[in-house]
Design brief:
This protein is α/β, with parallel strands linked by helices. It folds into two domains: 39-131, Ubiquitin-like (UB roll); 143-269, Cytidine Deaminase, domain 2 (3-Layer(aba) Sandwich). The chain is 26% helix and 32% strand. It has seven helices and 14 strands. It has helices spanning 60-70, 126-131, 143-155, 158-163, 186-200, 217-226, 239-248; strands at 6-7, 15-24, 27-36, 39-45, 48-55, 80-86, 91-96, 110-112, 167-173, 176-183, 208-211, 230-233, 251-257, 260-263. The strands form three sheets. It has a six-stranded mixed β-sheet, with helices on one face. Strands 10-9-11-12-13-14 form a six-stranded mixed β-sheet, sandwiched between helices. The protein has a two-stranded antiparallel ribbon with strand order 2-3. Helix 1 (60-70) crosses helix 5 (186-200), helix 5 packs parallel to helix 6 and helix 6 (217-226) packs parallel to helix 7. The termini are far apart. The relative contact order is 0.14.
């Protein structure tokens, strides 16, 4: 566990109710629908504004820690002296034990949206090259474990089943799900996993990431920064994600549907 104390209130609602007009089976009706909440969180590091993240307002401390580690600002939770979250103000104020230089290119202030696109990260950014690790873990999966892990993640996806508007990520061992996190931003869900790992000291040896969406290059980079050797997902990887997975030693498994899946890189981790 980290040595510092978090001071914050309880999580904000993950969902909201809205009256909508629905068309179904040739009939119009006014009904109440459940939608995912969206929350803007501004992170300050040593009184300097770092970024604003649009997220689901749960596990905010994990998100902040994971995001800072992913950006290369910290390497461990022990480098944080204090973390204070004001859910009412929408701020997270972090004090680090070391000096953070914000005039470097990879610490430039930027706005980070919850949607996909060019606004998030590129492997060619300096901090990505520094923080994306080559993964040598020899974790192996059997086919039935691939299906079981994604099924276990789906069982935790309460907010997705209610709203259809969030992503899920889970940290697993071959025979068990360790923790799952939800967010409107696919990157945020992975940062929450990363933050929990750093704050709790969970060993990453022999672990797997399961993911609800497609494996984009940004998602693949997050997995590399966390340091996990296998990522499994319901959807497809992109060509750039496959290239990165091959280079970084990560086994990318996609299109896990029914009783089939595709292994795109490093198939030696799959038991055949």
């Amino acid at each position: 566990m980290s040595a510092w104390a978090v001071r914050s209130g309880s999580d904000l609602p993950q969902r909201a109710e809205r009256q909508i007009l629905q068309y179904r089976d040739s009939t119009w009706a006014e009904v109440e629908d459940v939608v995912a909440s969206e929350y803007a969180l501004t992170i300050y590091v040593n009184d300097n504004e770092l970024a604003t993240i649009v997220c689901t307002p749960t596990n905010i401390e994990e998100l902040v820690v994971g995001f800072m580690a992913s950006e290369g600002i910290i390497q461990s939770a022990d480098q944080i002296e204090d973390l204070t979250v004001s859910r009412f103000m929408g701020t997270a104020r972090v004090k680090t034990k070391h000096q953070v230089t914000f005039n470097q290119a990879f610490y430039n202030k930027r706005y980070i949206a919850s949607c996909c696109g060019k606004g998030r990260q590129s492997f060619y950014f300096h901090n990505d090259a520094v923080t994306a690790k080559h993964v040598d873990d020899d974790v192996h999966l059997e086919p039935n474990q691939v299906f079981s892990l994604l099924d276990a993640m789906d069982e935790e996806a309460t907010l997705f089943h209610e709203t259809g508007g969030v992503h899920m990520a889970a940290l697993c061992r071959p025979d068990e799900l360790l923790l799952a996190r939800t967010d409107i931003g696919r990157h945020n869900a992975l940062d929450k996993i990363f933050g929990n790992v750093l704050m709790s000291g969970i060993s990453l040896a022999g672990t797997v990431i399961s993911f609800s969406g497609r494996i984009s290059s940004e998602v693949l980079l997050k997995v590399a920064k966390i340091g996990v050797g296998i990522v499994i997902a319901r959807s497809a990887p992109t060509a750039l994600a496959i290239d990165m997975a091959d280079e970084l030693g990560i086994t990318a498994v996609g299109f896990v549907r029914g009783k089939s899946f595709n292994v795109y890189t490093h198939p030696w981790r799959m038991q055949r």
